[in-house]
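Hi V.,

You were right to ask for the full record rather than a summary. Here it is.
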Amino acid sequence: MKKIQLHISDVTTVSTLDRGFNYGDGFFTTAKVIDGTIELWPLHRERLRQCQQRLFFPELDLDDLTTKLMHYVAECKLAVVKVVITRGVGGRGYSAPEDTQPQAFVTVTPFPIHYETWQQSGVALSIAQTRLGLQPLLAGLKTLNRLEQVLIKEEIRHNSAQDALVLNVSGNVIETSIANIIAVRNGRFYTPDLTQSGILGVFLQHLSCINTIEIIKMTLEDIYSMDAVFCCNSLMGLVPIKSISNQCYDLTLANKWRTELNPSAY
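Predicted structure:
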């Protein structure tokens, strides 16, 4: 079967009949651009491929998409590129059309300047009251269904924390509102199990390729007992967590382990 070439659309002209607009029927990835290059693009591309496969999209021509994207960001010095792919227009109700025509929407925005401060000073987390649901069919994927994160961000807006630690309805630690979690205890690295909830981030995958990071079902008691804790995503990199609620962590120790986890960056 011939791969489908994606037309990159202007995000100001999304059809009101688009399935991404109506049902969240799609997926996305967000990446850092430096000097015209998309960092960790092979991992972002693989994320798109896995979403395509698990959500039963037709096979997309990701080689063609890559070529178009590289042209799109060629003049960017430091920016954020976001690629949204929807199933396109059509179908009756929730049922997808037989002849699916997926659409790609690309935006390039300025890079968030506060991430540099977070890198240097660490971040303070509250504990979100909003809990993530359990859905193994979607767990790990970065789909367009992000209402849980919208509710969590609304919580953060009303407190003094910079982000929030997020648990699922089973009481397991999953992530923050925008990042994955990596923790250190006795020289061993751990990250929460994401088979029921959460998003498997590109930067976590990158670090897992160069480190042994054990996947565990992590409780609040577990994370409080860690020697150091980090949050990470492909934009901010690896950021030390200085506190979770009233539990504080040693940033000097965290910086030591950060160099161990990602030596090429420090």
